[in-house]
Amino acid sequence: MHSGYWLMATLFLPLITAAVLVGVPDSRKDIVRYISVTVGAVLFAMSVFIFFAYEVDHGGGYQFFIRYDWLENVAFLGPHGISLALGLDGISAPMVLLTGVVAFGGTLISWKIEHHNKDFFILFWVLVAGVYGTFESLDLFFFFFWYEVAVLPMYLLIAVWGSSSVFETFSRTKEYSAMKLTIMLVSASILIFLGIFAVFKEAGLGTFDLQQLYAYHFDENFQKMAFPLFVIGCGVLAGLWPFHTWSPDGHVSAPTAVSMLHAGVLMKLGAFGIIRLGIQLLPEGATFWMPGLMILATCNVVYGAFAATAQRDFKYMIGYSSVSHMGLVLMGLATMNQIGIDGAVLQMFAHGVMTATFFAMVGSVYDQTHTRDMRQYSGLVHRMPLFVFFFGLAGLASLGLPGLSGFVAEFHIFVGAFRTYPWAGALGIFAAAMTAVYILRMMSMAMFGPVDDKWNDLKEMTYLERGTAVLLLAAMLFMGLWPAPFIDRISETVRVLPGVS
Amino acid sequence: MNDLNLDYTLFIPEYFLAGLVVLLVVLDLYVTQVKKSWLSYIAAAGLAATAGVSLCWIDKQSNFARIVAIDNYTTYFRVFFMATGAIVCLASGKLVEDKLRHPGEFFALVILSTIGAIGMAASRELMTAYLSLELLSFSLYILVSFEKFDLRSNEAGIKYLLLGAFASAFFLYGMSLIYGVTGSTYYSDISANLSQGTDKFEWALLMGLVLMITGLGFKVAAVPFHMWTPDAYEGAPVAITAYLSTTSKAAGFALLLRLFSGAFQVVHDDWSWMIAGIAAATMILGNLVALQQHNIKRLMAYSSIGQVGYMLMGIAGLSHNTASALVLHMTGYMVSNMAIFIVIIAWYNMTGKEEIGDFRGMRERAPLLAGVLAGALFSLAGLPLFAGFVTKFILFQAVTDQGYYWLAAIGVVTSVISLYYYLQVMKQAFVIKPDEGDEALLPVPLLMNGMAAALMLGVFYVGLYPQQLFDAIDNATGFLFV
User: Fold this and answer.
1) Residue B70 host element (H or E)
2) What ipTM was predicted for this assembly?
3) Mutate which of A22, A76, A117, A177 to test chain B, going by most B C-beta atoms within 10 A?
4) What is the count of structural domains for chain A?
5) Which residue segment(s) compose the domain that A22 sits in?
6) Which residues of A touch B400 (CB under 8 A)?
7) CB-based contact A190 B412, cutoff 8 Å
């Protein structure tokens, strides 16, 4: 067994970094950059270590467990009332790895930020701490605590460092998108809040410790009542249709690193919350409601794919494809069978690295041209071959080419879906085919064809951007070519999830 | 009646404060060598020292002739009110230097009102509670209108005085009805008499409760008795606005807790629905109307009304747990709110502006203040890392445990609404650029920066390490239910 201090370190290193950055003078942008990239690298290394040190064949229990009693034996709280309990299972281990990869990539990409980069990185590290905390928490209070920490910096990150979109007939300002994202996510938290209050009162254990709550058997009617609170509450963050509308707007307006982290990792918090608070806490509620989630998830998959096809803005296209791919995650969860949920978790990782790559690539072009309208581009491959190479690979992963991460994940999900809801599986495969349509069309429109003279000055990606792309691509290939480390960890835990067939 | 405890040493902290009042006035009038600005330091130091002295009464439960209880609850609020008073005294240095000819009076009134507030927390008898309430209120009437040559300040003072007098009359009338049906003004006797059945005087009791809740509702600015709040907050000197939104409210709740737990807990069903209704209306109206404000003081007025709604939930489902949660939330609110007001005061002192739009570019011109503003606003909105998340969470959970799911739901929903208008303030401070030619750093006095930073640390303390504080509060509120 490994020490839980590794998890503590992933949680507190970003927070301490944020606190240290407060003390750095505004003018020393270089110090901010060096500190942040170093910390990003250390976090990445720790995440890789944690992922591989997680022991398979351990029975599916929590590893790296550590508990610090935070507030107990006072008022309505009993022993271990609220404790910072951290631990990993086979589902959160890949998520920690994902966070490490994307956060490190995000620090590299954000090297070029000039405007108050100190403030940017303070908020960025708070965001990263929130993400790690949510994946690692085994306490209901702290799960929600870190979940909200991850939402907290979004308004300023988008409104200060983001970019507005102007279309022919209307525009979306970054302030609008930032407010929409924040208010929608925090509104969704209302449901989680109420769910937590109800669960705590119903159990009457005087503790928010998730392992004790998992052991408690909730009344079946209560489960049916409370499950929608958690699933819709968390689902909004996962981009659940019809509450997905914050996602394209928010991701488009956000600065590159924030888009990467938000679409790549933060949306996974929502899906992860459905597992932790929905399936694990209220299994009978899950069995009852999952057909409903399947319907919504199918809408996600199909609607997202069609909407992405209609977009002419790079980032909006990626944003809607995220909606579609997160729908696949939800679809996998809604199957409630082993292979489907395996696939959902795999897809969480696969979509995370893939969409982060997309956003990083778009950022490298947008910073030079300040337009994201793909009709403005033509023949980029002649000016930026590396860019097209990376973008293309991410695109191929997105449409599920074997050998890349997307294939492994989608394959699992579709097998799971066909076992329970064949119609959903069929629609899912149809949407995956649509992915090929919009990705390939975008490639042919913007990347290939004759060179447009106005882009003669375009430069290839910077070395930092290439580093980010290589990092993310390595993760994509790792999962695509050798998925065993992932599947071993995930399936072992999914097997012991309550209510999974 | 021979066994009455007439131990006058119980009031030593109040004697100190009274001495401080005299000292400040005398220094101001007769010792001309003393600079005006020193008076604020003397007042703050005196309050801080007295708060230290009052710690001697920890765990020494006693009472004075059964009318005043000196227990951990009183001690907690002694420290609470003196700390708030000290912060306000320090923060009003600039106001005093620029606008007042006799600052001694100003500080003397702040300290007198502190004595009143302590009395409200300590009283276990209706007349004493009423007198303490009036001591607080009268001091505040004067303080609100202290900027004599500012019309808004005068208007605020008159409004506050007239409506406050009405509220006091309601409270008194309610008291007399309660006295009529129970034959006593002692909380413990009222409780004992009520527990023998209320069939014979149900309507009189109800009427008395309605009137008392009306009077106290006015003092804490609960809807529908809140109309004076925005005007008084806007007109008062900013430091006094800060004082109104913290001490005045906290004292009202200290009294409500002591009174309802001590005297009326046995007839909980008779009044809990009224308070629950008021709480719901207060949360909704306060937070919705705040959306439309463009003056920062009015915004904070409505935001504080919303906060009162949250705290009233704790009274509606009154129990030891909710009382602890309420005081915890109130403490977190006090620290966060004070931090925001320090920023507002510092900004106003430097720019003379108090519209929300005038906060634009604060990030460029006063980075530390902007950071504190953001953190404290997040805290009020109830986001984690800051005090507001844990205090609201505990409060809402405690209220849910009492069966008030619907109140907790309204509380959470209105919290989200409040985030919207707090973000609007943050948008000005961080997103909007300062005007051309106005980009230079402002010379923020060290004192203001220091206080803002210290209060911010307090916000983090409550938000990240609440065990000790909550233990102390839980212990203190335990004395309400003996």
Assistant:
1) strand B68-70
2) 0.92
3) A76
4) 1
5) 5-494
6) 197-198, 200-201
7) yes
